[in-house]
């Protein structure tokens, strides 16, 4: 039995060292990453019991991903290994101002993109859980993955779980028109939505002068209980300011911002989702928003996609303890 179930794809991440371009590379650093898995690891770090549901190829790369899942403290029992499909890859070129970092995807025909309804027994997967989390990235992979994402959301709602959905629009995966059409059918089944004002406007035509207006309109249209978004001001590749804003119970909440020296910004939004869910599971939205902003800021200091930080470190950031060496 697990308190939280997340559902999505993870890929192997390959990065040329020392700011190299891919065309220069003689070696590649290996990490793994995937939005819902990153969030699962963050939740484990905050003290929760989490299982990750996914589909991986029965191959060395698939087993590499599964091993890293277990290393992160996440239960892998709901991984379905397949003889078809492959492990998705993505390549990260690390930039420095004025050259932005860039990502090249190589994920076509992944095992997860070939998932079909009925492959997961959601009654068993969700048994005893309180929370189900997924994202728009998973829905973007294929018509099958979109159908299974919705299948999971419907099963979770029917089972009395709270559901959260990180909109996570990726223009390299699908068009705004297709994403808006597909995701509009899932939005009514998401109790908690993580989305920026820009994505709400791009996908659903929902606009407003303020975050509160956009969030309220999304709640009225789709029935969300809560809408939240991370805030960042990245003036330089290696420097960032991170915070969060949210709408819950008709009120707007906003956190302080944290100045970050960036080691690796990938996965920061997924870490934010973990902190948000943590607080909401304790019935405290303001706490969730605060934890989300703090763990999201800390994730910027950790190499790789996974938020390998401790709850004590999150609480130290919240307490304003600074960066003096702890001896």
Annotation, overall tally of beta strands: 14
Mean of the pLDDT scores? 96
The termini sit apart by: 38 Å
Could you give the order of the helices and strands?
EEEHEHEEEHEHHEHEHHEEEEHHH
In DSSP terms (H or I, runs of 4 or more residues), the helix count works out at 11
Radius of gyration: 19 Å
Catalogue the unreliable spans: none
Task: Specify the biggest β-sheet.
Answer: 10 strands, mixed
Please state the overall shape, judged from the principal axes of the Cα atoms.
Answer: globular
Structural class: alpha/beta
Tell me what portion of residues adopts beta-strand conformation: 15-25%
| DSSP helix fraction | 25-40%
Describe this entry's structure for a reader.
The protein is built from 11 helices and 14 strands. The mean pLDDT is 96. Strands 1, 4, 5, 8, 9, 10, 11, 12, 13 and 14 form a 10-stranded mixed sheet that branches. Strands 3-2-6-7 form a 4-stranded mixed sheet. By secondary structure, the protein is α/β, with parallel strands linked by helices. 35% of the residues lie in helices and 23% in strands. The longest helix is centred in the middle third of the chain and has 16 residues.
């Amino acid at each position: 039995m697990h308190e939280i179930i997340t559902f999505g794809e993870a890929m192997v991440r390959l990065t040329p060292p020392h700011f190299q371009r891919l065309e220069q590379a003689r070696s590649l650093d290996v990490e793994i990453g995937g939005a819902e898995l990153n969030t699962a690891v963050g939740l484990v770090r905050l003290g929760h019991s989490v299982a990750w549901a996914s589909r991986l190829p029965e191959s060395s790369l698939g087993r590499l991903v599964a091993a890293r899942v277990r290393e992160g403290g996440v239960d892998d029992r709901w991984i379905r290994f397949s003889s078809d499909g492959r492990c998705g890859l993505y390549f990260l070129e690390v930039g420095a101002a004025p050259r932005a970092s860039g990502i090249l995807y190589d994920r076509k025909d992944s095992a997860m993109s070939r998932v079909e309804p009925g492959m997961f027994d959601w009654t068993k997967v969700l048994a005893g859980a309180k929370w189900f989390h997924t994202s728009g990235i998973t829905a973007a992979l294929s018509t099958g993955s979109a159908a299974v994402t919705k299948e999971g959301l419907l099963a979770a709602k029917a089972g009395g779980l709270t559901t959260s959905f990180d909109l996570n629009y990726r223009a390299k995966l699908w068009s705004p028109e297709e994403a808006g059409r597909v995701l509009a059918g899932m939005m009514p089944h998401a109790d908690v939505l993580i989305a920026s004002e820009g994505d709400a406007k791009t996908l659903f035509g929902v606009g407003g002068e303020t975050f509160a207006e956009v969030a309220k309109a999304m709640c009225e249209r789709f029935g969300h209980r809560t809408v939240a978004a991370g805030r960042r001001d990245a003036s330089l590749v290696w420097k960032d300011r991170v915070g969060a804003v949210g709408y819950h119970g008709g009120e707007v909440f906003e956190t302080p911002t944290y100045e970050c020296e960036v080691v690796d910004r990938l996965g920061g939004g997924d870490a934010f989702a973990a902190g948000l869910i943590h607080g909401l599971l304790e019935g405290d939205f303001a706490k969730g928003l605060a934890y989300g902003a703090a763990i999201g800021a800390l994730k910027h200091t950790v190499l790789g996609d996974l938020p390998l930080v401790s709850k004590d470190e999150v609480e130290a950031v919240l307490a304003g303890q600074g960066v003096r060496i702890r001896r």
